[in-house]
Amino acid sequence: MADLRLEPKTPGQKKNRIxxxxxxxxxxGDEAAFSxxxxxxxxxxxxxxxxxxxxxxxxxxxGQLFSWIGTLILKANRMHRKxxxxxxxxxxxxxxxxxxxxxxxxARPDISAVLLLVYIASVAVMGMxxxxxxxxxxxxxxxxxxxxxxxWFVSGMAIVSNIGLVLLQMLFARLARNAGLPGYAMIMGIxxxxxxxxxxxxxxLSDCPARAVNFVSKRRGERVDYFFKPLWGLIWxxxxxxSGRVALVAFSTAYLLDHFGLRMDRIILIHMIVNLxxxxxxxxxxxxxxxxxxxxxxxxxxxxxxxxxxxxxxSAWWGLLPIIAYQVINGxxxxxxxxxxxxxxxxxxxxxxxxxxxSLSRMVTGVFIILVSTVAGWVLSQLRGWEINLWGAPFTHYxxxxxxxxxxxxxxxxPLYLLRLAKPSIDEEAVVVV
Length: 434
Hints:
Blueprint (H helix, E strand, L loop, with lengths): L10 H24 L2 H8 L4 H17 L2 H10 L2 H28 L4 H33 L5 H27 L4 H22 L26 H31 L4 H29 L2 H14 L1 H9 L1 H10 L5 H14 L5 H30 L3 E4 L2 E4 H14 L2 H8 L14
Antiparallel strand pairs: 1-2
Helix pairs in contact: 1-7, 1-8, 3-6, 3-9, 3-15, 4-5, 4-6, 4-15, 5-6, 5-8, 6-15, 7-10, 7-14, 9-15, 9-16, 9-17, 10-13, 10-14, 11-14, 11-16, 11-17, 12-13, 12-16
């Protein structure tokens, strides 16, 4: 097999990389930019800690839990382009419903309890569709891009998306300043319009056939092999990595609001630091992983980012500075970690049935995460008000919670080491249909 690291990239590949990046920004980046506002919306509708914990679990896990929907759409359409357009159109309908819910909440505060449930349910459905879209896109890249060009392709795609995401976060931060439910509805309206534009952009991408199989079948070659060891190794790694981080993300905004009294526009700007650092890390890790493989860069990023979560604990003594430092270090996670994990999955899973393996691993991980995060929200609500004076500073229930999140995330290094012993499959050449 030719050494693909030395092969020049074609003009078609370069155009696809840019288009994938812009499309990802339009249908996924704006949702990410809106994510910190969920806390403000839930509180405006009368929600509390349990609702916040459940919402955090929804945002992080529903996409994984229902990514199999993307596999079914691929199975029905047999082509990636049509499948993604269908998933995007369904998402735009749900986003329109969220806009209507927020406007109704402003006009009818007496039914805010009902609208809170509608909002949470709508965000959950949007998360399901986001997961199906991501499953389709990862499968599409697996078929379209040769193995040793995936770091270059996905990193470039993610860099374009992250640059746009930073601009969106700046816009949303400005619009969210002293905004109520009408302001949040306007921001979600922008998300709605971007998704519709993404449908037209996706229609111009190079297409290729999907190789989805059945989840259950009497014919062994036409179904998922549930005893495939790398599948369960990746599930273990994802559960360990996300359990602590999802719980931390779910309550980080509430902590910044309660402990430091920050406004939402400042919180969005703090989150924006991650995406700025991501841009440089994506460029570096994309090329490095193509040359030396995925495991070593992924192990280093996993260890460093897990340890950096302790900075949220240190904020008890040093204020906002550790949190800003965390966002800088955490820039190595985010899209960079996502890129490496996805490319590792594409290498370990067989080409035939790849969408099924991707969605199955995410579904099991999603079940685990939603349970852990919801329980974490309940525990935090029970501990609310607990505080001791430690080394001259108030050490609250938040800081103890962040310490537990850090220890849980560090356990992900063990399954990653065991996965290193697995032999990656040799992928096939890309099959492109213009």
